[in-house]
Design brief:
This protein has about 450 residues and is α+β, with helices and mostly antiparallel strands. It is built from 10 helices and 19 strands. Helix 4 runs parallel beside helix 5.
Length: about 450
């Protein structure tokens, strides 16, 4: 029952819509099957498969709304859910920002489903864990990691004739390798929709190499340095910045893109010329559903073009207030890169710091997107184009806005993220100047 076909969900949606007596009715059905394997201390600790399917009914009488969710699909349960949603709507206060559900839409399918990923079985998961475990046992290292694979579907329908159905697959792998004495640590993450793009041996080897190289870290005086950020470090910082492209927050003065008098910085050059960021539901590396949570069709949308702010994201309500055209919210973020490898960025650096990963990041000032956080799992000193030695981790105080204005070089882009958590991203490694390290951290 977990993964339903389009024909099955269409029958269910039609039945729910026929039962509703409300002014409008919205139906969404989602199901997913999640496989996983977790390992720690060079042994598998858990492995399993979970699945679930849910149906949500949302109805409205005027501006009063009610919602009910079930995971049973017989006629009696469907009618019970509709009546519960309608009862709640009649009791609810009016929503002053209520927006009617969308009219009939056309969705251009995106390639979110790969059969090879859907066919992942316990043996494939075990092989991915086994390589990291066996390699670490041979080298006297300690491994820990988590592999998840997801096969899912999403269906949407409403009383205005909207209907959409699409299946998806994804996988995500993280691995931490440490020396037995705890003095060295390496980390890696790989994400993909297609199993063919995932090589567990390559991923584990990256983490192993970093763990071995990060032993006996030396202290480097805090200050401003040229920094080479690997894609994982880049994405963690950029996620905070992309939240600032919300048009309402901007117009109400709560974004780094706000100007006095309710104006915004669309058209202003805030970043280096090399910075281009966009969203595209049909991107071959990070395809996403062609509709958003409001059933609006997604489009390819440019956020930053040659360093200039190109557009803001408008909700249905705010688009109406500002007389803008509402389109589906972003499902992914893609930053243009180059053909330069990480090794080439290092080779072109006279003096600098190589950062594998950032973590425990917190917002300091939303107006400037000032963030504070720590480096982790492999931080190295670079001199004359070579990695010289590991260094102790830093706390940093930095803004991705400033960071993207201080770019010296951009490297190749890679996929990070998946269906869970922040929007999937395609981001490059990059070399930036004057990155602000404020203090040392003893954690590895």
């Amino acid at each position: 029952m977990t993964i339903l076909t389009q024909e099955q969900t269409k029958r269910i949606c039609d039945r729910v819509l026929s039962l509703s007596k409300a002014d409008e009715c919205i139906v969404s059905i989602g199901g997913e099957r999640n496989g996983n394997i977790r390992f720690a201390r060079n042994a598998v600790s858990t492995a399993g498969l979970t699945d679930d399917t849910t149906l949500t009914v949302r109805v409205a009488f005027g501006k009063r709304q009610g919602t009910a969710t079930i995971n049973e699909f017989d006629d009696k349960s469907l009618e019970k859910a509709v009546r519960r949603a309608e009862d709640l709507a009649r009791l609810a206060p009016e929503n002053p920002e209520f927006m009617p559900t969308v009219s009939k839409q056309q969705y251009k399918a995106s390639n979110t489903f790969v059969q090879k990923t859907a066919d992942i079985d316990p043996e494939i998961r075990a092989q991915a864990a086994a390589y990291a475990i066996e390699a670490c046992r041979k080298k006297g290292l300690v491994s820990a990691g988590f592999l998840t694979d997801t096969t899912s579907f999403q269906t949407v329908a409403n009383s205005n004739g909207v209907f959409g159905h699409q299946a998806s697959t994804s996988l995500d792998f993280t691995c931490t390798i440490r020396t037995e004495d705890g003095r060295g640590s390496g980390w890696v993450r790989r994400s993909a929709r297609d199993l063919a793009r995932f090589d567990p041996r390559e991923a584990a080897d990256v983490a192993i190499e970093k763990a071995l190289r990060s032993v006996d870290a030396k202290a480097l005086e805090p200050g401003r340095y040229t920094v080479i950020l690997e894609p994982a470090a880049t994405s963690d910082l950029m996620n905070f910045m992309m939240n600032g492209f919300n048009a309402r927050n901007t117009d109400e003065g709560r974004s780094f893109l706000s100007k006095k008098g309710g104006l915004n910085r669309v058209g202003d050059k805030l970043f280096d010329q090399q910075v281009n960021i966009w969203s595209d539901p049909w991107d071959p590396l990070v395809p996403v559903l062609p509709w958003d949570q409001n059933m609006l069709p997604r489009e390819r949308q440019q956020w930053i073009k040659d360093g200039r702010v190109a557009d803001l994201e408008y909700s249905l309500y705010w688009a109406k207030q500002k007389n803008k055209r509402a389109i589906g919210s972003a499902g992914n973020y893609i930053m243009g890169g180059s053909d330069k490898s990480l090794d080439e960025l290092i080779a072109n650096t006279k003096k600098g710091v190589l950062v594998t990963r950032t973590w425990y990041i917190r917002m300091v000032d939303p107006q400037s997107v000032a963030l504070t956080g720590l480096t982790r799992d492999g931080t190295f000193y670079v001199e004359n184009g070579k990695v010289k030695h590991p260094i102790k981790n830093f706390r940093f105080n930095e803004s991705p806005v400033s960071m993207l204005n201080n770019i010296e070089e951009i490297g190749k882009s890679v996929v990070l993220g998946g269906d869970e958590g922040p929007n999937p991203m395609v981001v490059p490694a990059m070399k930036v100047r004057d990155f602000n390290f404020t203090s040392l951290s003893d954690a590895v």
